[in-house]
């Protein structure tokens, strides 16, 4: 595996902020309450599991688009398989993240773990950049760890 370029690495790390903040405000609710007191009741959706679950759904949908882009690099049966596989993360987020925060976080964590398997398949097909799995493995691990406080 090779090292990711600086821009994707920095953007990927920045994309972890809502997950990290959500985990922190789940473990330390007083931080979330301080945010709500400072910024008003509308800020409640940006703390605790709320920010993680909403943002996690967005990211799974975004990653579907990334995989779709990888599928455009090939043709025939492999392209058809790539397109079919690429829509799974968005469908997963749409179908399985309803209900309470515990079940939604569990399904999101499973979705991110499965996404990593899809990433690996696209990389095996040579459709992802050579540094892709290095980036995705680390980011996925942090996301799943950040969802644990909501799941437990």
From TrEMBL:
Which spans are transmembrane here? 46-68, 134-151
Pfam families referenced in this protein's UniProt entry, alphabetically: DUF3429 (PF11911)
Q: Which UniProt keywords apply?
A: Membrane, Transmembrane, Transmembrane helix
Q: In the UniProt record, does the keyword Transmembrane helix occur?
A: yes
- Out of the domains of life, which is the source? Bacteria
What is the name listed in the Swiss-Prot or TrEMBL entry for this protein?
A: DUF3429 domain-containing protein
**Originating species:** Histidinibacterium aquaticum
């Amino acid at each position: 595996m090779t090292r990711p370029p600086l821009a994707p690495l920095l953007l990927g790390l920045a994309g972890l902020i809502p997950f990290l903040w959500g985990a922190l405000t789940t473990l330390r609710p007083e931080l979330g309450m301080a945010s709500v007191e400072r910024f008003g009741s509308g800020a409640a959706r940006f703390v605790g599991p709320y920010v993680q679950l909403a943002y996690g759904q967005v990211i799974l949908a975004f990653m579907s688009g990334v995989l779709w882009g990888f599928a455009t690099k090939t043709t025939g049966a492999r392209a058809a398989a790539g397109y079919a596989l690429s829509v799974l993360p968005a469908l997963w987020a749409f179908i399985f993240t309803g209900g309470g925060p515990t079940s939604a976080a569990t399904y999101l964590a499973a979705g991110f773990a499965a996404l990593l398997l899809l990433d690996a398949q696209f990389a095996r097909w040579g459709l992802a950049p050579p540094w892709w799995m290095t980036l995705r493995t680390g980011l996925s691990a942090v996301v799943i760890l950040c969802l644990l406080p909501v799941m437990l």
